[in-house]
UniProtKB/TrEMBL annotation:
Keywords: ATP-binding, Carbohydrate metabolism, Cytoplasm, Kinase, Magnesium, Metal-binding, Nucleotide-binding, Potassium, Transferase. This is Ribokinase. PANTHER family: RIBOKINASE, SUGAR KINASE. InterPro entries: Carboh/pur_kinase_PfkB_CS (IPR002173), PfkB_dom (IPR011611), Ribo/fructo_kinase (IPR002139), Ribokinase (IPR011877), Ribokinase-like (IPR029056). Gene3D superfamilies: 3.40.1190.20. It is an enzyme of class 2 (transferase). It catalyses: D-ribose + ATP = D-ribose 5-phosphate + ADP + H(+).
Length: 299
């Protein structure tokens, strides 16, 4: 079983602030870190470090950020399919992080939305039934829908993280097997949280729903099955950037390596992995190492 991650690659510029700014207010901050990021890349890195064969399909511009992304990705155990696009700016994120570890993120998607559809479809032509197709909200609507349909046609298991929020998500649910949402995303897309949100998404066609709630843990709901709650692993949060991506990547890798869909063990593994991420600054540098993930998955 393999994972095909089609998503963005970006550079995260993290600025430490005392508090998030109010509208019209200028605040002071300091550079905390500059690191490889992008939701697609984050999830792919965690899955690959977890031992799952992972193909990352993405796009960058042809600029200094693109060079940095390629240098850092070359250090990861990934099969890279990166399109370098002339006249396009490589995506980046501005991350504001507070002393209690909370953050707000503004991200650009010019390169991600310009990802050539034919390049992504060419990668999917190598997929087998049962492989994972992992996507997020950074690509354009038509591209995302086309790829999810193509994955389904090949018998792939489709996993989706609806972030950043986009108006076209509503038409995607019938093509999604597994959805990962935090509380804010759940309220925006399902109008509720917890079991009601899971049931609403099941009614739209999603087979498994994972709802994360920070220190309150996470819930896994399987259509026609049980609701499973897994408590969060305690951690001193320094920077929550990439924690959700760590959770999703670790959960999918745990399940795939054991040849099945998500279960309580996969969610427990994801909780342990994300606890390591929030206790460190940065994005890629904060993710669990190969040895750390191996130890978690052995439990």
């Amino acid at each position: 079983m393999r994972a095909f991650v089609i998503g963005n690659a970006a550079i995260d510029e993290t600025i430490s602030v005392d508090g998030l700014p109010e509208p019209g207010v200028s605040i002071l901050g300091r550079i905390a870190s500059r690191d490889l990021g992008g939701k697609g890349t984050n999830q792919a890195v965690v899955m690959a470090r977890g031992g799952l064969e992972t193909i990352l399909v993405s796009a960058t511009g042809d600029d200094f950020r693109s060079a940095t992304i390629r240098e850092q990705l070359a250090e990861e155990p990934l099969d890279l399919r990166i399109s370098r696009l002339a006249g396009i700016s490589t995506d980046f994120s501005m991350v504001l992080t507070t002393p209690d570890g909370e953050n707000s993120i503004v991200t650009t998607t010019e390169a991600a939305e310009a990802l050539p559809l034919e390049a992504a479809l060419a990668a999917l032509s190598e997929a087998s039934s049962g492989d994972f197709l992992v996507m997020q909200g950074n690509l354009g609507g038509e591209t995302t829908e086309t790829l999810l349909k193509a994955g389904r046609a090949r018998g792939m298991v489709t996993a989706f993280n609806p972030s950043p929020l986009r108006p076209y998500f509503e038409r995607l649910w019938p093509f999604i097997d597994i959805a990962f949402l935090n509380e804010s995303e759940s309220l925006s897309l399902a109008g509720s949280t917890g079991g009601k949100a899971a049931e609403a998404l099941h009614a739209k066609g999603v087979r498994q729903v994972v709802l994360t709630a920070g220190t309150d843990g996470a819930m896994l709901s399987t259509k026609g099955g049980d609701f499973i709650h897994v408590p969060a692993v305690k951690a001193k949060a320094i920077d929550t950037t990439g924690a959700g991506d760590t959770f999703m990547g670790a959960a999918l890798a745990s399940a795939a390596l054991r040849g099945g869909m998500l279960d309580q063990r996969a969610i427990s593994h994801a909780s342990a992995a994300s606890a390591l991420t929030v206790a460190r600054r940065g994005t890629r540098r904060a993710f669990p190492s190969r040895d750390e993930l191996a130890a978690i998955f052995a439990g």
